[in-house]
Amino acid sequence: MAKVVGIMTTSHVPLIGKAIHLGLQQDPYWKPFFDGFPPIREWLEKVKPDVVLACYNDHGLNFFLDKQPTFAIGTAATYTSEDEGWGIPTMPEFPGAEDLSWHVRDSLVRDDFDMVTCQEMSVDHAFTIPMALLWPDQKWPVKVVPVCVNTVIFPLPSARRCYKLGEAIGRAIANFPEDTKILVIGTGGLSHQLEGERAGFINKEFDLQFMDSMVTDPQWATQFSDLDLVEQTGNEGVELLNWLVARGTIPGPVRVVHSNLHIPISNTAAATMLLEPV
């Protein structure tokens, strides 16, 4: 049967993609962030997942202000990255795990989640940068299932709802009949705000508490409304909702394989965690 072998969460700042392109991994500004990934790559070499299910937020590549689903899932055969205007080179296309995608979609709809199904879909930096951080050669050894969460237009899905979505994805994976090892990724955050009076806002104390809760009390953040999360983490820090979806996919306890927090990268608290089921 299919199983979630781990959860990897990380920031997806567009500037990371440019740093990768320019080879700045050892630059003093970037090194503390990129140093968080060799232990994760060692784990990948050992575990060798078959599929990545990535929980992320689209930045206008597929959905814009006129059409913004709360939750969407890709069911395509392949996914291409496109030029978003950030100066990030496009990456090789990603092969889709079609059978798993359709199975998860069907299971979620039957579990009362109204998923938008995308049979054609492009993926932006929120998806591509974490993949390039895991596999720097960009020769993808996995198939992918993209799951998009609205973190753009208010009201956002509640933290509670996002965690429940993760639980439902976990149940769907557990019922998938093929012997498949799945790495779930949650991308974005942590605290940051890019505009307005609080531009540059970072809340290290909240970030550390949230990271700890991913292990010790995964539903801790579900007490906060979407506006509470904006107050605590900044307007873009609400991307931590993707982390909650990812965490919900493992129902039991987890252990920390690796964890890293570096402040700041492009006005962002750039955090990375790798968790595996106990």
Describe the structure.
This protein has 278 residues and is α/β, with parallel strands linked by helices. It has one domain (3-277): LigB-like (Protocatechuate 4,5-dioxygenase, Chain B, 3-Layer(aba) Sandwich), CATH 3.40.830. The chain contains nine helices and eleven strands. It has helices at residues 14-22, 31-34, 38-47, 98-110, 125-134, 159-174, 204-216, 226-233, 240-248, and strands at residues 3-10, 51-56, 71-74, 78-81, 94-95, 116-118, 122-123, 143-149, 181-187, 254-265, 268-277. The strands form two sheets. Strands 6-3-8-2-9-1-11-10 form an eight-stranded mixed sheet, with helices on both faces. A three-stranded mixed sheet has the order 5-4-7. A hairpin with a 2-residue loop joins β10 and β11 (268-277). The chain is globular. The two termini are 18 Å apart. InterPro entries: Xdiol_dOase_suB. GO terms for molecular function: ferrous iron binding; oxidoreductase activity, acting on single donors with incorporation of molecular oxygen, incorporation of two atoms of oxygen. Residues 8-261 form the Extradiol ring-cleavage dioxygenase class III enzyme subunit B domain.
Features:
single chain; 278 residues; alpha/beta; Protocatechuate 4,5-dioxygenase, Chain B; eight-stranded mixed beta sheet; three-stranded mixed beta sheet; 11 strands; 23% strand; globular; ferrous iron binding; oxidoreductase; Xdiol_dOase_suB; oxidoreductase activity, acting on single donors with incorporation of molecular oxygen, incorporation of two atoms of oxygen; dioxygenase
